[in-house]
Amino acid sequence: MNYSVRGNRKVEYQCPRCTSPVESPLERAGEQVACPTCGAAMMVPGARELEQLTIEVRLREAKKLEAERAEEASRAERARASRASEVGRAKAAAAKEAEARKLQPRAEAAPRARGSVSRVTFGGTLFLALSAFYLVAVLPLQTRLSQTQAKLNALTNTMNANAEALESLTETVNHNARIANLNNRVR
To answer: CB atoms < 10 A from the CB of 137, how many?
Structure first.
């Protein structure tokens, strides 16, 4: 049967009985329809084009999903690198301060200068500052990472479901094509 696919959504063909022109949506390819003029039963052609269109749509969706995953992974990596950089700078500053303390002459019994703080006060203040940094910077990043991982898992599940649906659709299209071939042989 001669037919043409217009755009990517319409199939134009002729009725095998009365040869009147017929137009059907591509989504109906492989289905049995009646001729609008004479009422004869016929199969809508274009199953191969419908299968190709379906595959292209699924591939676009898969590529979009893959790009979203890559972007999420990139954001997570940037956040991890930023945290590592902050930790590295803090360690370097602590090491520099420790080295400076080693170089200072010790005055064991000397009274503290006015405005200086004891080691206990300094340690407590440092602990509070680090705790605040953890609450303000690290904890939100960990929460965001958990949310990103949950989204990634959901997208993986969706992609797997789409792959199964595509496989099922392909089997259905192949089955319909075999039936169409058998119907064409019988005529």
So the answer is: 13
CB distance 29 to 50 below 8 Å: yes
25, containing H or E segment: strand 21-25
Strand partners, 184: none
Tokens of 88: 């590295």
| Whether the predicted model's global pTM rises above the 0.90 cut | no
Domain extents in the chain? 1-45, 47-98+121-187
CA distances from 49 to 83, 122, 149, 178 (A): 51, 75, 38, 15
Share of the chain above pLDDT 90, in %: 30
The band of 106, judged by pLDDT with boundaries at 50, 70 and 90, is low
